[in-house]
Amino acid sequence: MSFKSLGLMTELVRAVSENGYSVPTPIQKQAIPLILEGRDLMGAAQTGTGKTAGFTLPLLQRLASTRKTEPGRRTVRALVITPTRELAAQVAESVETYGKYLPLKSTVVFGGVSINPQKQKLIRGVDILIATPGRLLDHVGQRSVDLSRVELLILDEADRMLDMGFIHDIRKILALVPRQKQTLLFSATFADGIKKLAKGLLKAPALVEVAHCKTTAEAIQQLVHPVDKKRKRELLSHLIGSNNWKQVLVFNRTKHGANRLAEQLNTDGITAVAIHGNKSQGARTKALADFKAGKVRVLVATDIAARGLDINQLPHVVNYELPNVAEDYIHRIGRTGRAGHEGEAISLVCVDEMKMLKDIVNLIKYDIPQKIIDGYQPDPTIKAEPIQQGRAIKQGNSRRRHHKKNARYQDNYRTTRVAA
Fold this sequence. Notes:
Blueprint (H helix, E strand, L loop, with lengths): L9 H9 L7 H11 L4 E5 L5 H15 L12 E4 L3 H14 L7 E4 L6 H9 L3 E4 L1 H9 L10 E4 L2 H6 L3 H8 L7 E6 L4 H8 L6 E5 L9 E7 L5 H12 L4 E4 L3 H13 L4 E4 L5 H12 L5 E4 L1 H4 L9 E4 L7 H7 L9 E7 L4 H11 L28 H15 L13
Parallel strand pairs: 1-6, 1-7, 2-4, 2-5, 3-4, 5-6, 8-13, 9-11, 9-12, 10-11, 12-13
C-alpha cells in the first residue's frame, strides 16, 4: 500500500516521498482515510509508530481542500494541543515538512521562551496552531489568538496531559472552540480517564488501536543489571566505556539527580548533559542538538523532559533509576527500537526498586532477563529502603499537583524512519 492509495493529494505524497517514506505504517493506514472522511477519531498507539504523520497529513489535506481564498487575516482553523514543548516542536516540524507544497501557514507556541514573537505571528494570522495548554491560555488572555473558527481539534498524548494535571486547562480550551468541529484524540492507552474525556468530546468516534499499550517493542532487547544503589554510577560508566557506547539516553527520577549524574559522568571522562524542566528552553534545545550531533555521548533526562524526544536510531536507553509509575517504563524504552531498528534497554536496579521492577514485569507481561556484572554483585546484607516519591496514593496525588504547578511553564522530538 502506498501513501497515494490512502487518498492523499499529490502535494502531500511528494513531500512524504522526498523525506524517504514510501509505505505507510499501520496507524497511518487506518487513521488517514478516516480523518479524510471527516470522522472524529480516538487513537491508541505506542511511540515510534508514525502517529504524528497519521494526523498531520490528513489535517493538511482537509484544510488545503477547503481553503478560503478571499482576502483578510487568516484565522486558526486547526488546533493541535500537546503536553510538552518537545512534542509541540515535533508536530510543528511535521506540519512544516509535509505542508511545504501547500499554501498554509502554521506556528507553534509553548512556554519557556519569549511570548512576544509568538504574538506577532499569531496576529499576522495562521491556519494551523500547535500549542501547549498553558502558553495557549496565556495568548488567549492577551487576545493574540481567536479560537472561534477552529474546524479541527487534535489532542495529542492526551494521557500525558491528564497525568500532568492539564485537565482544567483543557476544559478551558474546549470552551473556546466551536462545538461543531472534527476532533481527534490520541493516547498511549484507552484508560478510564481518557474514555471519560472522549465521551464528552468526541461524536461517534472511529477507534484505531495499533500495538497494545501494555506491550513493548519486539525490536528492543531488555536487560536488568542488579547492583547496589551507591555503585550505579560506577557501573554505568563501566558499561559505557567497556562497550564503547556512543549515544546513550539515561533516565533519572529527579532533576537534581539528573544534574548530579551528568556531572559525575563528565568527571569520569564521559561527555554528558542533563535535560529537565528547570532547564531553559534554549538549554534544552542545545543539549538535544549536541546529543544528536554526537558532541555528547550521554543525555540524562527526567520523564517529563523526555516525553516526545525525537532521536533517530537511538541504540541505547538506560534506566539509571526505575520510574515511579510502571507505564512510564514503556515510554522510556520506546525511545529506542523504532521503525524496525534494533535497540537496547538496560535497567540498573537496586534492592529498593524490586517492587517497581515487579510492577513493570506484571504490566508488560515479560520477565526481563537479569544479569549480574562481574565485580558489581549486590551486597545481600543491604536492606530495601523506601523510595522518595513512591507510588502510595498520597504521594501520587502530590506528584500530580507538582506536575500541574510546574508543567504550565515547563510544557515539555522524535525522528524515526517511519513518517513521524
